[in-house]
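ok, trying the design again with the full structure, not the truncated one.
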């Protein structure tokens, strides 16, 4: 709701009250409209201030209401009522003015912001555009280029930048509401003719066409199939080319296209999914709201390779004291230099002080004796990790949490090396660890709820989105990825090329196709793992070359590695590069010959594989594995999987994540297509729909937020 009061006799105060962010729900909109009418009708009231309760002006439209039938007064007439008011209306912006919140502020005649406030139009990230006049008012106020920047990127600005751009009239370090009241009194008798933004002419820079062309090119490049950014450009274009009223009509049309699109639904689902993962639960019933994290002041990182360096930087930037351990002198000094560089660049980019003094370097594991939490980040070698965990268990103070940064090794096996297995959890960072937002927090069967809560909270403090997942080979992300990679290899055997597969996946919205990503990460990494798993051996020849454990196996990746083709680092992989370390992938005629020889050798006849098959073969087995993961209780809900895939694996956000995508395709359709491919390729693993997927498909594709009710049941039957 919105609360009306009178201050200093002549100022009507409208306070938005809808915790936590004063979103513009139906009740809030109704409250604002009622309060405005009241303020306008009271003769003693000479001016009005609009503010938000609890130091937050307004977080915009209530996203939770988007799926439901619209009730209450719409936003557009509400902002017009405010702008048309005969008494000056001043927005007192504390905390945030986002989306509809900023549109509300732009309808006011003046804006006073607190210096710590942030303002912006984040609608584009929800698959929308600022549809309450934002695309028409902002360009009239600050010009076209700056508006295009803010509206198409969703970038939030500080109060200082907002002042510079001309969005706010004053910035104060003091109480912004008090300042706004004083300001409102001072302008009570002033004419409002020059204060209604909708009446301003929209500035028309001489190079207008070039500006819009560039903006369109820019969004096409970065949007990867998302429709909202381009539609935002079109809406701003209307502000320049049409009178205000017509521009508003155009904004409404474009908003409605976006609002009713699958992309907006996916992005809004994702918005809530990213917040839902913090309310974690484990298969054994531990929960976020009943598990208390331990205090962590000092942390250690063991192993300063690429991952360890990134983790050290993340910890220091989050304000933790860090002991960084690397036993090799030379690597330690290289790491010191690299970490300093990363910290310097980070401090410059973020405009914050350097965090060098937070880190102490050491060559000895003994240096971690007094820390509260250790993150082991040596390379993926179980024997080495086991030795380190034995050492840590002996050296660390009682109660210290022992974490391993592994992308798939058994957490429980490591826990069993320690005296306190309940204090062991996995923290799977994604490279580069100081940049990537995702953290898989992996609990083993013996990890205590307190340990999981501590790791989840550490991730949050490091600016990550932490997702709690159970212990299994590859956890959630890499376990599903295995199926995706396998299918891509099989498609090559059957006649596809790396370029064809990658093109289909990039058109779907991945920033890079599977083969380009493999070349970037290094083909030798998977090869090492497969060798350790006994999947690579000269003994596999003849008919056994393409069979492992009774299932079809593609040795293509192994054969490439045997040729020294490790990807970008060697200048050759699934593609060729101009030099080792080169970045631009070019099709490699050698590879075509290699694939032809391979097929001939194994009696495979290349066939034409269409776009649909490439997409379905790559995505549906991955999705099916996601359902198996839910069935096994490794992930608590579809949101966990979707957040992992969007933040860690480049799944296009506007498609919500693999589980959301499946819900949109239709689970019955996913089952039907998997069965279809299974029939044609009975030897291909991963094509058999799992029990949970079949069950959900059979109960007529329930909405994704209802899946959890069904998921509990198959689990209890395991
Ligand atoms: C014609 C219409 C045109 C207008 C369109 C729009 O305005 S579109 C909207 C444009 N506006 C946006 O896109 C702003 C979206 N919001 C944000 O960017 C951030 O939430 C924040 C910066 C406001 C606060 O960040 P923070 O890290 O301090 O906190 P946090 O992120 O954890 O959120 C806390 C809780 O608040 C909830 N919630 C938040 N906002 C909304 C909302 N608008 N609605 C409903 N709920 C919302 C959030 O779900 C969470 O709930 P939970 O999980 O506790 O039950």
């Amino acid at each position: 709701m919105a609360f009306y009061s009178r201050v200093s006799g002549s100022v009507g105060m409208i306070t938005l009250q809808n915790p936590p962010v004063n979103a513009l729900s139906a009740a809030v909109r109704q409250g604002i409209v009622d309060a405005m009418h009241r303020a306008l009708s009271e003769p003693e009231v000479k001016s009005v201030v609009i503010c938000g309760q609890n130091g937050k002006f307004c977080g915009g439209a209530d996203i939770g209401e988007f799926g439901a039938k619209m009730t209450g007064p719409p936003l557009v007439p509400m902002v017009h009522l405010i702008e048309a008011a005969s008494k000056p209306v001043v927005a007192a912006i504390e905390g945030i003015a986002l989306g509809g919140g900023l549109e509300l502020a732009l309808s006011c005649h003046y804006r006073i912001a607190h210096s710590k406030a942030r303002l912006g139009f984040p609608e584009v990230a929800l698959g929308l555009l600022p549809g309450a006049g934002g695309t028409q008012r902002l360009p009239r106020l600050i010009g076209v280029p700056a508006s295009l920047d803010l509206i198409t990127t969703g970038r939030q600005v500080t109060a200082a930048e907002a002042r510079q751009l001309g969005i706010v009239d004053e910035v104060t370090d003091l109480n912004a509401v008090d300042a706004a009241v004083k300001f409102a009194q001072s302008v009570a008798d002033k004419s409002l003719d020059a204060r209604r933004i909708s009446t301003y002419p929209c500035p028309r820079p001489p190079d207008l066409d070039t500006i819009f062309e560039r903006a369109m090119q820019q969004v096409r490049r970065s949007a990867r199939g998302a429709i909202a950014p381009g539609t935002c450009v079109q809406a701003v274009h209307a502000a320049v080319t049409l009178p205000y009223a017509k521009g508003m009509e155009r904004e409404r049309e474009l908003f409605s296209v976006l609002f009713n699109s699958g992309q907006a639904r996916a992005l809004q689902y994702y918005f809530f999914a990213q917040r839902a993962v913090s309310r974690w639960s484990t298969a054994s019933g531990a929960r976020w709201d009943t598990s208390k994290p331990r205090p962590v002041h000092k942390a250690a990182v063991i192993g300063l390779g690429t991952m360890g360096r990134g983790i050290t930087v993340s910890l220091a930037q989050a304000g933790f004291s860090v002991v960084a351990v690397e036993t090799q002198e030379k690597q330690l000094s290289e790491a010191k230099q690299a970490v300093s560089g990363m910290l310097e660049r980070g401090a410059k980019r973020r405009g914050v002080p350097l965090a060098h003094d937070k880190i102490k370097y050491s060559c000895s594991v003994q240096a971690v004796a007094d820390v509260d939490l250790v993150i082991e980040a040596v390379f993926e070698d179980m024997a080495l990790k086991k030795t380190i965990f034995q050492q840590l268990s002996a050296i660390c103070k009682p109660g210290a949490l022992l974490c391993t940064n592994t992308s798939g090794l058994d957490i429980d096996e490591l826990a069993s090396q320690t005296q306190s297995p309940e204090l062991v959890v996995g923290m799977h960072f994604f490279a580069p660890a100081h940049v990537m937002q995702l953290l898989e927090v992996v609990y083993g069967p013996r990890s205590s709820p307190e340990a999981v809560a501590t790791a989840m909270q550490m991730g949050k403090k490091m600016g990550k989105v932490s997702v709690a997942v159970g212990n299994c080979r590859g956890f959630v992300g890499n376990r599903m990825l295995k199926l995706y990679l396998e299918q891509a290899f099989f498609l090559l055997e059957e006649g596809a090329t790396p370029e064809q597969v990658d093109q289909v996946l990039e058109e779907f919205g991945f920033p890079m196709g599977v083969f380009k990503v493999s070349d970037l990460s290094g083909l030798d990494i998977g090869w090492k793992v497969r060798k350790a798993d006994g999947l690579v051996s000269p003994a596999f020849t003849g008919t056994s070359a393409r069979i492992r454990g009774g299932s079809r196996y593609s040795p293509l990746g192994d054969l490439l590695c045997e040729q020294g083709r490790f990807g970008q680092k060697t200048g050759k992989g699934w593609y060729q590069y101009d030099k080792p370390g080169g970045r631009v992938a070019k099709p490699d005629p050698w590879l075509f010959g290699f694939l032809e020889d391979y097929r001939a050798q194994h009696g495979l006849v290349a066939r034409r594989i269409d776009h649909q098959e490439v997409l379905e073969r790559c995505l549906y087995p991955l999705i099916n594995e996601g359902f198996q993961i839910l069935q096994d209780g490794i992930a608590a809900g579809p949101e966990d999987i979707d957040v992992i895939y969007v933040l860690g694996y480049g799944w296009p956000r506007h498609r919500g994540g693999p589980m959301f995508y499946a819900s949109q395709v239709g689970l019955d359709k996913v089952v039907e297509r998997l069965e279809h491919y299974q029939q044609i390729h009975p030897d291909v693993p991963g094509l058999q729909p799992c029990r949970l997927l079949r069950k959900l498909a059979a109960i007529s594709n329930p909405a994704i937020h209802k899946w959890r009710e069904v998921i509990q049941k198959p689990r209890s039957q395991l």
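Keeping the full-length input from now on. The longest strand covers residues 2-7.
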